[in-house]
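Can't paste images in this forum, so I'm doing it all in text. The chain is below; anyone willing to post the predicted structure tokens underneath?
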Amino acid sequence: MIRILMLLLLSFSASANIYGQRIAQFQVTLSKETELGSFPLSIDLDDITSLPESELRLVEITKGKSSPVAYQIQNHGRRELFWMVQHDEGKRKRVFELIKGDPATSSSIVEVKDNDGALVINTNNKNLLQYNYKTHYPPAGVDTAFRRSGFIHPLWTPNGQALTRIDAPDHYHHYGLWNPWTKVLFEGETVDFWNLKDRKGTVRFANIVSVNEGPVFGDYQTLHQHVALKKGAGEKVAINELQSVRIYKPEENQDFYIADITIQLNCASDSPVLLQEYRYGGLGWRATELWNKENSETLTSEGKTRKDADGTNARWAIVQGSLGDDHGGAVMMSYPTNYNHPEPLRIWPENANGRGDVYANFSPTKDKDWSLEPGKNYVLKYRFLVFNGKFGKEQAEAAWQNFAKAPNIDIELFNQK
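Text version of the structure:
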């Protein structure tokens, strides 16, 4: 919750003289239930000032002293200012000030590099996520119907281990982190965008919309086309998908980072689309081949484990396991405004493929249809907290609270000369 108080001051306090002309003060109230490492905050900058980014400096005020804070501005019609807040145990109120001055410099940024058909997000010389826009073909001798573009692989832990898998012989259509739908009614026909071998549909990368780098986050937006392969009638795009992926810069030596995936769907023609009830579909995660039923585990927000999580609803799910001599995984989280939230889960049973291979999926259409009408946008928001070490229920709940419930921010505006 954000509250703005207008203060028209004719003179400035001693602190203003120390720090420069004050524009606004942000008092952030944190709750104990969100106490976990660093997480992003944001405010609408256009509600506060019209000064350009080059004349703005953000500082944190502690016991009368200021320290510079790196920030980044997103401009989607209105400017939004983002910065990271590091939890300090027992310190529930934090005070930040926006002043007129030179922005703080940062020794490192979150970069997005184009590398031979892939966008790679990295920071501090560590690769964290790779998005593949170039078409990937299955191994030689495997049906080329399994080719695919527009998927995430690898998703790396902070220590560099891959958490995703492609080219699995049991499911060649599994592509790391990817987002197709399985049973779709479109123009009188049932289309399967998931099981590629059936040649009824596929999902293709269409365009890179934007790329951003900076001291707080790196992100990209890409356009995907969900293409119906109509017998005797060629192809037709049924759904346009704008997929946005953002990684926030972790603190030094922090054993986790945050990756946000936002999926915006709309009908690509005047024809409506019905995503029909089916046991899986949507954002799927085929996990590393290192994991099996003996060395990995799953825990959901409702206390379910791999033995009984499939078909249940959840706000979050931890999937983690051994990674050689290390340990790690991810907490996958569903945002409260998502369709059918808390969302149904598809979790593979412990006997999957005989060895207990790991697959996890938030599937909003697992138990109900979802109708997409022309001229409307439909948004799904997910967060992956990717970690090394082991995560428990309290940590996962704190991470979801940070994602789902913004802290109180009281904003005081000062007279600007």
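Confidence is low (pLDDT under 50) at residues 5-19. The chain has two domains: 2-105+406-413, 110-404.
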